[in-house]
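Lecture 7 notes: from sequence to structure.

We start with a single chain of 99 residues. Read the sequence below before looking at the structure.
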Amino acid sequence: MAFHCVRSIGPVATIGEGLQITLPQGVLDALRIGPGDQVEFFHVAPDEFLFYVATRPLPIAGIVPTRVRRPVTIDEMNHTFASMERQRRKSAKRKEKRK
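Now the structure, written as tokens:
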């Protein structure tokens, strides 16, 4: 039996008939945006997007590396992805046991 969790961690917007999204006033106030402002969407994971105000520059702290990183070999990448997959499977197994 599969269970689906609906996440609601804050204000919710509804998609209207014309496929337009009306953002809650609290979100508009927090982002300091209004009619005519543009937002930009970033695909971060399957079924997940973030959006930013396109008319305002993004802070670059943490985006631009402060030091030059050494090149990574294919073997190191494969090792990293394999350990991430092992961790993901371990986590999924623990979740399955809790059900």
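The helical segments are 25-31, 74-98. Keep this in mind for problem set 3.
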